[in-house]
Amino acid sequence: MSYINEYSKINGFYNKSTGIAIRDAYIKNKELYIPKYGNVIIPSGLIVKIPEGYGLIAYNRSSVASKLGLILGACVIDYNYLKEIYINLINTSRNEVFIKENTKICQLVVVPVVDVDIVEKDFDTSNSRGGFGSTDNTT
Predict the structure, then answer these.
(1) Proportion of the chain above pLDDT 90, given as a percent
(2) What count of Cα atoms within 13 Å lies in the side-chain half-sphere of residue 80?
(3) Which of 10, 17, 76, 89 is least enclosed by beta carbons within 10 angstroms?
(4) CATH numbers and ranges of domains, the chain
């Protein structure tokens, strides 16, 4: 991973003995304000060369989502995207949120992408299980 400005920082690694596979993304040396119910697109200062056959996924950090009410928007970075990565944070809370400098804001994971053939086909939905909790319905 390459840094292109002084506001970015990535920390983390994959360690087989501990199973840690996450890279935390920080906003470093900068405070950030997000209005209630607002969203911001933050330049990360990161350009990543992802190997072909892989993608980079940005995930919510549980503490940021549960304590601050911030969730991520656009989360998938394709292997052939070679420009600066932007992080889309959405404030779902009724409060303005101030993020202090050096706060971890999301987690980045490199994942393999499986190429599958998708075939359009008629599908019988009469025996469908439904979804969204429908299997809990006993009546």
Answers:
(1) 27
(2) 0
(3) 17
(4) 2-115 (2.70.40.10)
